[in-house]
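*** Fold description ***
***
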Amino acid sequence: MPVVESENVPGSRPSGAGAPLVEYDALSVTLPGTARPILDAVSLHLTAGEAVALVGESGSGKSVTARAALGLFPAGALIGGQVRVEGRDVVGADAATLRGVRTGKASMVFQDPRAGINPVRRIGDFLTESLRPAGGRSRAAARARALELLGAAGLPDPPRHLRQYPHQLSGGMLQRVMIAGALTADPRLLLCDEPTTALDVTTQAEIMALLRTLQRDRGLGLLLITHDLDLAAACCERIYVMYAGRIVEAATATELLAAPRHPYTIGLLGSSPRLHGELDRLTPVPGVPMGLLESAPGCSFAARCRFARPGVCDRSAPPLAPVTSLPLPPAPVLSAAPAGGGPPPRLVACHLADDLHQEEP
């Protein structure tokens, strides 16, 4: 696949906005032997101090998108487009550039903490092994820094936890250790790949509150990968919705919840229970997500869409473009804004977007 040249792709930062921490510019990732790309011209951006969510079903490409910021791509994949972390393109970057990004600019909190920590080594070893070579610290200084990070992550007894093994901690405590480990590099960008999926509801709330506190106090950019649209709206200022490797809607959290404009987003909200108002029967999204061995000539969601129009939706793929006739006034957000003020444009990839603005989820 040829590399896509950088240009004003829908979904990238608005003209005149400040430089983002991370910017995906028409990123495409394709594995040989598949019928469609894993990622298809994905464009998004995130600025310092901003929390942004990437939402979608399993297999939509969310995790591949997040890992791309660290230069982690599937083996043998054909890569097109760019991923710039503080201006450095990690696509095709050399080892020294990738090392600089991974040890000083961006860190990742993975979904399963038990898969990310060596089970036969102590917590202290896990934290200090990256502090000593990367930070140039002595053993004592690395231990002091590890204690500081465990305290910042909300663990009650850092000296004792340094001596413990992973199996001696609960899932929530171990995820706090992973967060502390992600902070050892003093990153400006924190990538969180479904960090609360394996945790109970109470612990989920504690972990998300911790991440938001760290993000605000340290001025970090936070990219949250999740399949939970309500969680994304509660924790993030902006939301990108992804389906079958493409961004299908991008809006502020307020706009997205109040008036979704893509049928897939409407379906996600319709399948979520409501705490207020009448308790209606949930309406799941019909069908199953499109696999990598499947492709469609038109919209990838058309086969599951209750609004699909024959001869329109199945003929050509809709581009991700600004929508007209917004039903709500622009909501203030903590994100990059176009020149002259105002929030980023609302983007939807749907032939029928202007007809769906009054549709109830």
